[in-house]
Design brief:
The chain is an alpha+beta fold and 206 residues long. Helices cover 52% and strands 20% of the residues. It folds into two domains: 137 residues, Alpha-Beta Plaits (2-Layer Sandwich), CATH 3.30.70; 68 residues, no CATH class. It has a five-stranded mixed β-sheet with strand order 4-1-3-2-5, with helices on both faces.
């Protein structure tokens, strides 16, 4: 099977609420496993930086679908390469909302400002894109995980648990924001309660 890794940039056409981000991640995590697609999504300032890995034909079809999605604009593929081995195989879709704090954790990115996270700057600075994605390419990307890795003989299980916990924490924050937004607008629905129950079940199961 021919395996392809593609990285693209796009900009949201309208601001993504926390609820919209949850919907996007839910969609990815529901559909990507059946497609055999893995990857990483970094989001900030209304900009998406995403890498997809998988069967060449399926990745190309998924890219076409994303490009046609009315929620995206300024879509551009910035890197396309055949690969022998996946680097995001642990995630159907890893996710990070980039922050200034996160940037300070990466020495190569300390001069990079969060305001520069936009398609124009990133497409002109491939080394920044590489550094943004590089820290997610192994289970060692988080400083706390690196510290544990150096000291603990059970690092395999602990490392995976920490990564899973951080992903669940990010999703829980999005869910809370979504419920707050819906309550403020007076449009809290059964869907929000269902998402809350699923998140509680997920947190209790780990």
């Amino acid at each position: 099977m021919s395996v392809l890794r593609v990285t693209y940039l796009s900009r949201e056409t309208e601001p993504f609420s926390a609820g919209a981000l949850i919907d996007l991640l839910e969609h990815c995590k529901h559909n990507n496993p059946s497609l055999g697609v893995t990857g990483m999504l970094v989001y900030a300032n209304g900009t998406f930086l995403q890498t997809l890995e998988g069967d060449t034909h399926k990745v190309e079809l998924l890219l076409e679908k994303i490009e046609r999605d009315p929620r995206h604009q300024d879509f551009q593929v910035i890197k396309r390469e055949p690969i022998d081995e996946r680097v995001y195989k642990q995630w159907s879709m890893g996710f990070e909302r980039l922050t200034e704090t996160a940037l300070q954790e990466v020495p190569a990115l300390r001069a990079f400002q969060l305001d520069d996270f936009n398609p124009e700057f990133l497409s002109a600075h491939p080394s920044v894109v590489e550094n943004l994605l590089q820290r997610h390419r192994s289970l060692h990307w988080d400083p706390l995980i690196r510290e544990i890795d150096a000291r603990d003989q059970f690092i395999g299980e602990l490392r995976a648990a920490l990564i899973s916990a951080r992903q669940r924490n990010e999703q829980a924050l999005l869910l809370i924001e979504s419920v707050i937004e819906a309550a403020a607008e007076g449009v809290l629905k059964d869907r929000h309660l269902q998402l809350c129950r699923r998140m509680v079940d997920t947190l209790r199961s780990r």
